[in-house]
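Entry 14. Structure prediction run on the chain below.
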Amino acid sequence: MKTILVTGGAGYIGSHTVKRLIEQDFSVVVADNLVYGHKEALPQNTPLEIVDLDDRGGLKALFAKYTFDAVIHFAAYAYVGESVQDPAKYYRNNVIGTLNLLDAMLEADVKEIVFSSTCATYGEPQYTPIDEAHPQNPINAYGAGKLMIERVFADYKRAYDLRYIALRYFNAAGATADATIGASHDPETRLIPLVLRAAQSDKPVQIFGDEYDTADGTCVRDYIHIDDLADAHILALKAIDQYNGALNLGTGIGVSVREIINVAQKVVGKKIMFEIAKPRAGDPAKLVAANAKAREILGWSPSRSDIETIIASTWNWEKSRRF
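Output returned:
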């Protein structure tokens, strides 16, 4: 049985991946500082070590306490707007923290890592669907930091034989079918939870711009169910000896903001109010993934990511949130 360290494992994507790992008989240890994570999101009896990425001594002790076969690295700050306002926070935690993690890994002779990257490394799209060969020109510190880490991995591969796969997510969404785990962000910035909370409160949700060059004038995004994302990380662990590099995770299908609201109304059975606000700076009209490479290399196929399934699972979670 392989033992996997999951950093940031008490967070949104991390906790879903921990659940899937345990279901597939991996041994799992979670490292999380619980700044944004929730220990309630973890399966019962999952080992949890509370440690910061800036704590080099704590990381060294963690790798001395357990024998790990690989690491899945989620731990990061992930608010794009905040990264523009306070880039130092993001570079210190996300970039320097990852270097600290890599130092501890190499000292313990752990040389496999699956990394939580992002489509924000691409910046403004030059074409869609976006494939892995698309130029990477991030427009915020969050995306820039993730790109720096991808480049670190490539250098560490050549110098230290670090084996890695960086998974570039598009829009993570949804919750487990049994509504035991879902998104619990403060502040919440993701569209689908905001739309569903508007349905609960009868207050309008904001649409940021309705004059984009899309079919209905609102932004288009590629939404991927959280459990499909979790499965991709496990498949990446199994493929890491054959492939090192980056892979997009998305469905290849774009859904507009208005379409999200329309489907949400169908799911909740009531009209959801909205108001048009000014477009946000740096919001591309359309972000859609080309996912052929992940399908080929991982044998991965998103099976839960039709938009109605995503919204229905989120609605069930929002109605019964435990944390």
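The chain has a mean pLDDT of 97.
Filed with the rest of this week's runs.
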